[in-house]
Amino acid sequence: MDKRFYAIIMGIGPGIGSALAFQFAKFYPVVLISRNSSSYESIVTDIKANGGHAMGITADASDPNSMDAAFGRIERDMHGANLALAAYNARGPFARKPFLELKAEDLQASIAAEAAIPLLLTSVQSSPNPPSLLVTGATASLRGSAFFSTVAAGKFAQRAVTQSLAREFGPQGVHVALVVIDGGIDVPWAKHIVTNGGVEDGKLKPDAIASSLWHLHTQHRSSWTLELDLRPYVEKF
Amino acid sequence: MDKRFYAIIMGIGPGIGSALAFQFAKFYPVVLISRNSSSYESIVTDIKANGGHAMGITADASDPNSMDAAFGRIERDMHGANLALAAYNARGPFARKPFLELKAEDLQASIAAEAAIPLLLTSVQSSPNPPSLLVTGATASLRGSAFFSTVAAGKFAQRAVTQSLAREFGPQGVHVALVVIDGGIDVPWAKHIVTNGGVEDGKLKPDAIASSLWHLHTQHRSSWTLELDLRPYVEKF
Amino acid sequence: MDKRFYAIIMGIGPGIGSALAFQFAKFYPVVLISRNSSSYESIVTDIKANGGHAMGITADASDPNSMDAAFGRIERDMHGANLALAAYNARGPFARKPFLELKAEDLQASIAAEAAIPLLLTSVQSSPNPPSLLVTGATASLRGSAFFSTVAAGKFAQRAVTQSLAREFGPQGVHVALVVIDGGIDVPWAKHIVTNGGVEDGKLKPDAIASSLWHLHTQHRSSWTLELDLRPYVEKF
Amino acid sequence: MDKRFYAIIMGIGPGIGSALAFQFAKFYPVVLISRNSSSYESIVTDIKANGGHAMGITADASDPNSMDAAFGRIERDMHGANLALAAYNARGPFARKPFLELKAEDLQASIAAEAAIPLLLTSVQSSPNPPSLLVTGATASLRGSAFFSTVAAGKFAQRAVTQSLAREFGPQGVHVALVVIDGGIDVPWAKHIVTNGGVEDGKLKPDAIASSLWHLHTQHRSSWTLELDLRPYVEKF
Predict the structure, then answer these.
(1) Which of C203, C224, C229 sits opposite B233 (nearest CB)?
(2) Residues D109, C153: C-beta atoms closer than 8 Å
(3) At what angle do helices A16-25 and A41-49 cross, to 10 degrees?
(4) Under 8 Å between Cβ of D226 and C146
(5) What is residue D25's predicted lDDT score, i.e. its pLDDT?
(6) Which of C71, C96, C102, C111 best tests the D interface by mutation, with the highest count of D CBs <10 A?
């Protein structure tokens, strides 16, 4: 545990966010951000019970003022530790609705990740692993499909932002990467959803996803990945 | 000139929009929509002087209320003619600014094109050419780059929407396609910008772009293009 | 009919090749190349009966010596006319076989198109339309799939060659483009194959494909397309 | 060291192949295949000196008979151990030559990797990590460019084969993936080639590449990557 650095996970819950928290907490104190404290409380408790360091912050990643307040508090509470790793895992409701019913407001890509960049830049010289901003996308990051134009628009925009940030801040030493998660995720609340015929390991395990995000963080700056796809071995694609 | 049908061009001006208007006016009455009447007045005059039919409407494609009003007026003024072709050519200011200066408001994809879909659907049975929604994109539709994350986010989102609409409304008979314009455009106000070494035809001619959009409109429904790239013969890509 | 120029179609038969021949013969004398004279004889007869100019040559596009001989004969017989348009439409047997049964010999991309480039280069100054090399690809040009590794390897390689040629010879004035045909083709011998539920226009019409290839040939050099996808309006993609 | 399994590296030398050998030898006995014994002898010696297990085999990956003989010998010498990991790292001479000088023979994608699939399939049940076939590609895997049509054709074909194999054998439990290496590699014999302004870590370190290949091998089958890009933090792309 290197307490000179810490990690932030934006978008927490009992699925991927939780797995990221436990994975990163093996190496860094972790800050968990969610709109609802109920999303992170038990995770914080578990990490502490296992000897790790964790804190939760209630904030809305789509509200710049809320994020400013959250990051202000993080900087105070971290007593000079530096941000080494930020993960942005916003998995909104994938509402399936015909395009004609869309409203312009739906079409808004979250850029809360922006708030983490300045902090990551300050860690370039000192961090043992390249400071990283890792974003989780989905199948809809790569293709639009009928009835999912809002989801795809948001995920395409997120990919555009990730690519642009990667190209802008990579040469400054911050590793920005997108993880495209192409398949159903094996989370407790989706047990009833059968994918890939219900075969074993037919859904992505959050721990396995977290393992690949951690690998991205440890990549040497001579050999960075911009985009990583992840899908079950039985997935059609 | 088939007056049972008409075309709409959203995003008009002395460049691509104007060329589209003249191209489409050879076959249909045209409706030109712009925020400023000064953008379409001389074009409307020219088309009429050449025996065509044209009308201009002042409206803001990013404001649903403004678009509702515009389309209401179009339906009244068209006396039962049907929409056969809609082109969406929004080429906003490609402001180059570092991501850290971005505001969330910048990251908004225009979906004014949405308003045209219901009208196009009503023309499927009668229109000699498949009713079409054609959208003009840019290099930034395909890749993010440093300092252009807002532009890319918007263009990626636009591409996502176009792909999604194509997959949703194609089987219903409406041809939705994206034209990716990869290069500088040969417009009067950009004469001073030298691209490709200033070589002849080193910028895209608006008339040539319009010709390819027209080709898309005339494609038989057995053989539609989803995405068309256009660039000068000397362009690096 | 501009007899100072001619077109070549490599890969002829009663489907796309035939449609290309009739389309191009409206504008140029056409040379049809096939391994078997039976593939072109009736087409040549038909074109002549309609007042066009056509000749057939028996040659093997995968055999450099055979192609050399064929192009030698073409140059003699054309009496100084210049090549304005070459189409390469090799649609081999799409044998579905597991990879483990493949042989290395299967994995050979045809580069017969190469033979046409020097002739096209000589037409750059004089040809009214930019001299063009147009190649037809398939779904397998864009993605590999189980049991189709040989098909995909060949089509990927063909796409690589087309892209490379486009980038090398485009700035010299030769328009090289790939047409990705994504769907079943409506040819007489495939009437029994039901695609897209047998819906009307659910297969690509060869004439419609030919129309889009002709459009590519007529594109102004300021606005060229590198890659064009074509698929039926009802196609899933 | 798990001696019930072993790894094969096809394409060995003092760069990536050597790094792969040392990385994999931490976990498995390794078999190194090259056309010349001088390519692997010192690596075998080094691995043994460090307590690992290694053997070299002279064979030509483009010759099916040679590969058959090599794999026959491997199976004999491995005394019932199973193949858990095969890496195919063919980095031929990237000759820059105009397309018109190409010969058809150049355009041949290597499919030596095919030989490894049956052996990997036998390890699915027993191997602690999913048996893996990992292939190294290059920038030319993703785009053709002027003067590099042969390189691109080969790399495109290789990508097609890798994708097809991934889709065919993934559901059977074999992880097939492509690593796209986009940049110059920091190898002894290329020290004189300056890339990215000669900045530190401006070339890919073979050890870093090997680390990412190893990560692919350890990915849980619920969350596999098909394609991984790697490039220096300062690389333009």
Answers:
(1) C224
(2) yes
(3) 30
(4) no
(5) 97
(6) C111
Cα–Cα distance for residue pair D24/D181, rounded to 1 Å: 19
**What is d(CA B133, CA C220) in angstroms, rounded to the nearest whole number?**
23
- CA distance linking residue A202 with residue A222, whole number of Å: 34
Alpha carbons B226 and C141: distance in angstroms, whole number: 16
Give per-residue pLDDT as tens, A70-84.
999 998 998 889 999
Nearest CA in chain D to A204: D222
> How far apart are alpha carbons A4 and B34 in whole angstroms?
55
Which tokens in the block code for residue C74?
Answer: 């073409």
For B24-74, the pLDDT digits (tens) are 999 999 999 998 999 999 999 999 999 999 999 998 776 778 888 999 999
Buried b / exposed e across B119-142, counting CB within 10 Å, b at 16+? Answer: bbbebbeebebbbbbbbbbbbbbb
Residue B60 lies in a domain: yes
Query: In this structure, what are the phi and psi dihedrals at residue C204, rounded to the nearest 5 degrees?
Result: -70, 130
Q: Do B222 and C208 touch (CB under 8 A)?
A: yes
Residue A83 belongs to some domain of the structure: yes
Helix ranges (DSSP H) in B8-63 = 16-25, 41-49
At a CB cut-off of 8 Å and minimum separation 6, what does D160 contact?
C140, C144, C149, C152, C153, C155, C156, C157
Rounded to an integer, what distance in angstroms lies between the CA atom of residue B147 and that of residue A165? 8
- The DSSP 8-state label assigned to residue A177 in this structure reads E
pLDDT over threshold 70, residue B112:
no
Total count of domains within chain A: 1
Residue B136 sits in a domain whose CATH number is 3.40.50.720
Compare all CA atoms of chain D with the CA of C166 and give the residue at the minimum distance: D146
Contact A221 D232 (CB under 8 A): yes
Would you tell me how many other CB atoms lie within 10 Å of the CB of residue A192? 5
Q: Note whether residue B235 is domain-resident.
A: no
The candidate with the shortest Cα–Cα distance to D130, out of D33, D229, D223, is D223
Instruction: Write out the two tokens for B16.
Output: 């691509």
Q: Which domain holds residue D77?
A: 5-230
| Inter-chain touch B117–A102, beta carbons under 8 Å | no
C142 shares contact with chain D (CB less than 8 Å):
no
CA-CA-CA-CA dihedral for A117, A122, A127, A131, to nearest 10? 10
Q: Is C235 within the bounds of a domain?
A: no
Of D1, D8, D3, D4, the closest CA to residue D135 belongs to D8
pLDDT tens for chain C, residues 1 to 237: 678 999 999 888 789 999 999 999 999 999 999 989 999 999 999 999 999 999 999 987 767 788 889 999 998 998 889 999 999 886 554 344 444 433 333 333 355 667 789 999 999 999 999 999 999 988 888 888 776 666 777 788 788 888 888 999 999 999 999 999 999 999 888 888 888 888 999 999 999 999 999 999 999 999 999 999 999 999 988
Let me know: does C155 contact C141? Beta carbons within 8 Å.
Answer: yes
Name residues whose C-beta falls within 8 Å of residue B200's C-beta, 6 or more positions apart in sequence. Answer: none
The answer to whether residues B201 and C182 touch, using CB atoms and an 8 Å cutoff, is: no
